[in-house]
Amino acid sequence: MAGHKLEAAIKEFGVDCDGKIALDSGLSTGGFTDCLLQHGASHVYGVDVGYGQVAEKIRVHEHVSVIERTNLRHLTKLPQLVDLVTLDLSFISILVVMPAVVKVMKTDSTLITLIKPQFEARRSQVGKGGIIRDPLVHKEVLDRIISGVEQFGFRNGGWIESPLKGAEGNTEFLACFERIPMP
């Protein structure tokens, strides 16, 4: 299911995955990783704080390195810098992990992130059952996350509403960023 979300972003933003080295954080069962491989990624480093959730076909794939029990914000390096990062994170803000993400990305690289307002909004903005229905809260979260990621040296290439709802029926968004080469 998560792969369908990433598929929509790849198509909408025209992201070229062919031959790219990628980091997929929030690996879970491997939906984003599977999508990246189907679009030609040459290798995917899959990072997840959990353990034992990855689908067998992803776990044993020769072009995937599974890195479990690892919190992305504590990741300091990978065997090589990556061309593309995908984030599908829960219970942590995207902005908290960005310092680690930047360290493993090439200068000329792309970031696609699934923005989950229920994990980015203030507690007072989250309704019963963790649901956010207010479009003004969605907009505030999008603006804050996009602006925050741009502060790490990225240019926003746009965002879309996810074609699928998140857990509990929450509206989620996908945003694409290009890293701005620093002189």
From TrEMBL:
- Which organism's genome codes for this protein? Aegilops tauschii subsp. strangulata
Q: Which GO terms describe its molecular function?
A: methyltransferase activity; RNA binding
**Lineage in the entry?**
Eukaryota, Viridiplantae, Streptophyta, Embryophyta, Tracheophyta
Q: Which UniProt keywords apply?
A: RNA-binding
Q: Does the keyword RNA-binding apply?
A: yes
InterPro entries assigned to the protein according to its UniProt record, in alphabetical order: RNA_MeTrfase_FtsJ_dom, SAM-dependent_MTases_sf, TlyA
Pfam families to which the protein is assigned, alphabetical: FtsJ
Ribosomal RNA methyltransferase FtsJ domain residues are 2-178
Q: By its UniProt entry, which PANTHER family does this protein fall under?
A: BACTERIAL HEMOLYSIN-LIKE PROTEIN (PTHR32319:SF0)
Q: Which GO terms describe its biological process?
A: methylation
Name the SUPFAM superfamilies for this protein: S-adenosyl-L-methionine-dependent methyltransferases (SSF53335)
Gene3D superfamilies, from UniProt?
Vaccinia Virus protein VP39
This chain belongs to which protein, by name?
Answer: Ribosomal RNA methyltransferase FtsJ domain-containing protein
